[in-house]
Write a structure and sequence with these properties.
- It is a multi-pass membrane protein.
- This protein is an all-alpha fold.
- Helices cover about 70% and strands about 0% of the residues.
- It has a single domain, classed as Amino acid/polyamine transporter I (Up-down Bundle).
- The protein is built from 20 helices and two strands.
Amino acid sequence: MSSVPVDPQLVEETTALALEEKGKLVKSLSRLDMTLFTICAFVGLDTLGLVASNGPQGFLWLVLLAALFVVPYGLLMSEVGSAFPEEGGPYEWVKLAFGRFQGSLAAVLYWFTNPLWVGGSLAFIATAAWSSNISEISPGSAWDYIFKLIFIWFSIGVAIAALKRGKWIPNVGAIMRIIVLGLFSITVIIYGFQEGFEGSVVTDITPTMSVFLALVPLLLFNYVGFELQSGAAEEMKDPQKDVPTSVLRSGVTGVLLYAVPIFCILLVLPLDQVTGIGGFLDAVAVTFTIYGGAADIILKLVALGFILTLITSGSVWMIGSDRVLAVAAYDGAFAPFFGRFNARLGTPVRVNVLSGIVASIFMIAAVALFDSGEDSKFYIVLTIAISTTLLSYLWVFPAALKLRYSHGHVKRPYRVGASGNGKMIVAAVMTTFWVALGSWVAVFPGTLESLFGVEYDFLDTWGTGRGTYELLTVGTLVVIAIVAMIGYAMGAGVRRDQVTVPIEPGGGESS
């Protein structure tokens, strides 16, 4: 089963279990699938209101980060995703660059966000959208639990389904984003000419440090997802050609799908009427009055479309991140029980079910113990939980640069910079800086504000003192680290059954 590569730079040490499980993968993702998949991952409607609630500055930073973060990020992922198209992409890149244990930490951090995001933010926002626009659901009622559980397990069901079938849900989700946001934007233009524009999109746009530091983690969380498709890299039909193209197309589309509706929200609503969660649907309710008697029906349809986009956001991240953890497991970097792909479906069902259980437990705890998610401690844990994805990029981005040097002989169908490593270094440094800044602000809020002399009321912002906040956040990170170390220790037996394979030119792998 093993082979000896001619060039030591082109060798990878994997496991017998990995080769066995790779045999269950089926190539089913076309270039169009990958583009729609990434749009679905990249564009989340759950945060539109939160960004818009920061007014013109929110829009300004959204546009600036598109240039200063999204562009170099897309370049990095285009190179590494097309040069090393291996299942579990982010884990494999970090493993090749820094070793299995570092890959394990990155994989667990990358995965951990998503079950808590689905069982936390997405399920709660979907319930609020349903309750406000379609049929009231009382917080803490039986229907509250049932609705959220249906939401969670529908997302999980999409991830469990064979990718050749399950991919259609994210595809539909991407198209639904374009339809909903496109209809909204056109409606706003018509409304503006009929009723006037009462927003403040061009006033008070001078950037301030306080708004910038408050928005950084949220905007970065909005703008990640280019590498997610590489979680299923060996299920792509032609990743060497399709990864760069899909990143470019989804990046341009995604930035526009954020910028245009937020601009429109700020055109329509006075800032004091833009709420964090309801900002988008509030703007829909205001502008869709131009449709007269049909407005109520259209609003309900848009609310359903909004909920569908939330479901597909969760499902697409489950599809990608669950594969990353499963690959780490079959490579001996996490508990091997979770390294199995279902023979019939070709999906990591065990990790999918684990994600559903974690999401469900988190949701039930939030409703039962944290005042249906209103308790400040719930928001603190949720904030750090969804920030773990940002932390994982502290491994992923440097790995992309390291691979340029450590695996320089691997053919790169797309390369950042025609010659030399200068542009690659700049892209890696810029992206790593932004995620480091976002991670620090999420884990230690208020510290940079103090450094720059910005007033910051910690108790008013978080509803608790710094000691409690840091206990919850640092405690959460310690738990994640312990889970990663235990999982790595459990994979020792798998690692002993090691197989050496060549990394072929173009990033492929053979046995």
